[in-house]
Write a structure and sequence with these properties.
MetI-like fold; 13 helices; 0% strand; flat
Length: 309
Amino acid sequence: MSTRPLQATPAQAPPIAPRAAGGPGRRSGPVHRRRWTVGRVLVAGALVAMTVVFIYPFVWLLSASFKPRGQVLDNRLIPETFTYQNYLNVWDEAPMLLWLGNTVLVTVLAAVAVTLSSALVAWGFAYFRFPGRSALFGLVLATMMLPGAVTMVPTFLIWNSLGQVNTLTPLWAGNLFGSAFYIFLLRQFFLSLPREIFEAAKIDGANNWTIFRRVALPLTRPALIVTLLFEFQAAWTDLMKPLIYLRDNEKFTIPRGLKALVDQYGFGGNWQWEILVTAAVITTVPMIILFFLGQRHFVEGIATTGVKG
């Protein structure tokens, strides 16, 4: 008789039954598909509702610009009587072309000046290592907490002493010193770039200015475009500075000119609202075109800025 101990054989596990299609382990059944479809419909409906809310004022303004004087305020989105005469009359009633030229000049100079100056300061904070860098950067950011009304009078006195009141210079020249918000925005983008790229350029013999101009700026193109768009919109719609510094009608920008039209044709004037709404449409259309042209760069710059702190 054999004395070898008997080895226990493991019990065989029962076979695993295949999972039925549409069972609890899967979420591709009719119920899940129905919920997913309902969710998409709700999201689409919410987006459409928000779009209507935001676009309605401009649609109303555009519709009113094609109405005669007695029908401007009838709240009809489809004019009862179409007329194109308002777009001809507005050029006769106001120097719109001159105002548009002044606005384009001020806007381009302000956007370019603040973009280049802010990029230069942001590059210094992002690339160079020096004692007190963080404290100095915090001081720059602290200037954003300072209301514009606090510096309004001192700034006016400075430009008045320089003889620049009633000129276009104060509307854009202050941007040569940068903006705290844009400095923060561009610094975050510079920090997201690999430092090895700049070190390699330095090894190849490039100085700091060459690295900034030929390496850093091309790599930060999305953030630069965002800064340009932000400042372009801010300068195009700015009323406070032209209201303070401009006196002569031929030097007005579009916002200051619209204020003059409101005084003349709106409240306190002869109630020619068709002139006002038509001038407002002419003022708004360039910004809409600019947004659609730079939309892709704008979204790209926002999505890629601030990745690294």
